[in-house]
Structure formats: structure tokens, C-alpha cells
Amino acid sequence: MPDYPQIFLNAKRSHALDGFHPWILDRSVIDPTLPLPPGTIVDCLLPSGASLGRGIYNPNSRIRIRLYQKTLAEDLDEAWLLRQLERACNLRNFWMSRNHNLDALRLVNSEGDGLSGVIIDRFGDCVVIQLTAYALLPWLDLIADWIESKFAPQAIFLRIDAATAKQEGLESKDELLRGIPPTGPLQIVENSVKLAIDLSASQKTGYYLDQRANRAAAARWIEAGPLLDVCCYVGGFSLAARQWTPATEITAVDSSLRALEGAERNLQLNGFPAIDFVQADCFDYLEHLVSENAQFQTVILDPPRMASHRGQVAAAIRAYHRLNLNAVRILSPGGLLVTCSCSGRVSREDFAGLLGAVSRKTKRRLQILESRSADFDHPVDTTCLESEYLKCLICRVE
Questions:
Q1: How many folded domains does the chain comprise?
Q2: Can 342 be counted among the known catalytic residues?
Q3: CATH code of 118's domain
Q4: Measuring CA to CA, which of 8, 21, 81, 372 is 20 to 30 A from 266?
């Protein structure tokens, strides 16, 4: 086994010491200016010489080290990476063997599968790799080789968003990595609903697979009556609702015209009755509905992430409060509120707490019927609870 550079950590400031957290911040490194290039494998030690584990160093990132192993007994090499990929794949295969096969799922969920910094999603015959850190970039070809040998996809895409690129010292990318790109949108099926996914013009990896089970769960609670779907993207919640309650009048709102065009395409693909698609800012549109004294039986809120770091949490909570307050104001008595947050920095307790504040403000009782998270293919590592980012609360509003 090679001798790796040793990094000594400040025991009093090391976030990773609390249960071997996979993120070691720059402030936790005694000498954060070490002249090591990005991607260097390092051994992490306490001042006493006790081992914390082995990880990958990036001098350009606030997360200075991604910790992948809790001991120094195993090498951090290609064989290790392939074992981790296989474990992640086997977990999904086991679940599908007991339930049903999916043609779109998350194959690797970053920290949840012990592979901090990489997400892999499969959409039919195409696979999307999203890097959220520099750490595993040197092994990108190995990851692509594994995907080809395992799934023989038509195409593999690589995505590195602008925020990640800035934080990690990378170039942002949205490109074909291998294979032949599809000539048009891919068709997948979610909970018996057909969806056309355009990988060339989509958010994140292509579609929000984490809400799969939540869309089905919410649809089971929806009664006939007007429904408002706020931040609808390509129509996932609206189409699930339309499938269960075809007589419901549905208004679906998003600020992105391209997303709404995708939603209209998906509506036509399924042959469902019409949905009123509206391009508007979600905050402004809700306030307009309040001013018009509009009433809905169901309101669904699935806004984009509002807090990516601790400094944004207070503003995010105020924004969520504003959205939910106006949603409750337009709900009929006995109506259904499906409210979501994908901001990992906003805790489940804080999210439920702001609903309590909404209840007090409106003097209306809110009952949480279900408190849900991401679907099975988005596992969470107990040493990194921040990665349990998704909250979906299904509530009755009296």
C-alpha cells in the first residue's frame, strides 16, 4: 500500500470527529495551506497520531478533505471505487427484486452510498453523471467504464453545475461524455405516468427522481376540487394528481417556459384532460391569488433550493413561511397542503416549525398527515444527516 501524505486535524474544530463526518472543512486542518494538488489521497490524523481515516484533498474547496474510509487498513484505489459502485447497484437491484423494476432511478447517491461528490442517475438507455466535488474527477473514466460494462447505455452525460465549479475549482460542464445522444426526449414511466425527459435542457440530472414516491403519496390524498401546483417543473405532481382524480381542475405554475413546455408535452403524452399551465414567479402568483380571494382544495409547493449554506437559512425560512402562508390563505377548509423543501440546511424541525407559525398567523389548524423524505434510491448516511435534504409534508388544513 502506498505511503500517503499525512494531514493533521485540529481536534477541537474538526466537524468530522463527530461520527466520522465525510466532510473535513478547511478550518479543521492544522495547516490548511499545504502545497498538495487537488485529488491527492491523504491520511487524516489527530495531533496525538490517532487515525481518523483516509480521504481526498482539495486545496480549492472549503470542504478541504472528503473522507471515504474510517481506517487506514484499506487502500483508496480503483478496486475500492468499483466495490462501492457495485454495493450501490446491488442495493437498488435488491429493492427492485422485491417491488418492481424502474426505468429511471438514482444509481449512486453521493454521501448516501459512501461516494461523496458523485451522483449517477439512469434514464432508460441514458446515464447522467453529476460531479458535486473535485474528489472523484480523476476516476471519471473508471466510473464511465463501469457504467458501460454494467448497463451498456446509449449515452453517458457529464454535468458539473456552475456553483460546484466555483466552490471546487472546476470547469462547469454539461456535455456528452460517451455514446450517441438521443435525437429527442427520452420516455420514462413513473407510477404509470409517462414522462418525456429532455436531457439536453433539463434541471439537475434531468428529472427529480427523489420525489417519485411523494408524488404518488400526495395523489392518494387529493380530493376532487381545484388544485394549484406551484413550481411544477415538467408536471410530475400535476400529472400524478390528474391520473388519480381526472375531474379535478388543475393550475400548474412555473417561472420557466421551457419547463412548462415539457409539462404540456407530458400531458399530451398521457392523453389526460387539460391542465392550465401558467408562467409566473411563484411568490407573485400566490400573492395575486390571495388578493383575488381564490380558493383551492389542494395546493402543492415544490420550490427550488433556497439555502445552500448556513448563512442563507434564516432568509430561506422567511421565504418558505411566505409561500406557505399564502398557500394556506387560498386553501378551502379541509383542504390539502403538500409542501416541500429541498434545502438540506433547513432542518425538518425548522420546516415543520414554520408551518406552526403559519397556523398561528392564519388561526387555522394544520395536521401533518405524512412526513416524507426522498425515495428509496436516495439513501442517507447517518454520519452526514445534512444529505437528507428533502422534506415533503402532506397536511390537512382546517
A1: 3
A2: yes
A3: 3.30.750.80
A4: 372
Q: 1 lies in a domain?
A: no
What are the cell numbers at 211? 420525489
Summarised one tens digit per residue, pLDDT across range 348-372 is: 999 999 999 999 999 999 999 999 9
What is the 3-state secondary structure of the chain? Answer: CCCCCEEEECCCCCHHHCCCCCEEEHHHECCCCCCCCCCEEEEEECCCCCEEEEEEECCCCCEEEEEEECCCCCCCCHHHHHHHHHHHHHHHHHHHHHCCCCCEEEEEEHHHHCCCCEEEEEECCEEEEEECCCCCHHHHHHHHHHHHHHHCCCEEEEEECHHHHHHHCCCCEEEEEEECCCCCCEEEEECCEEEEECCCCCCCCCCCHHHHHHHHHHHHHCCCCCEEEECCCCCHHHHHHHHHCCCCCEEEEECCHHHHHHHHHHHHHHCCCCCEEEECCHHHHHHHHHHCCCCEEEEEECCCCCCCCHHHHHHHHHHHHHHHHHHHHCEEEEEEEEEEECCCCCCHHHHHHHHHHHHHHHCCCEEEEEEECCCCCCCCCCCCHHHCCCEEEEEEEC
Instruction: From 17, 43, 69, give the residue that closes a domain.
Output: 69
- Catalytic position from the list 231, 282, 342, 384: 342
pLDDT tens readout for residues 202-221:
666 789 999 999 999 999 99
Task: Please indicate, yes or no, whether residues 237 and 249 belong to a single structural domain of this protein.
Answer: yes
Model confidence, pTM: 0.93
Residue 143 CA, chain-centre distance (Å), reads: 21
* CATH number of the domain within which 46 lies: 2.30.130.10
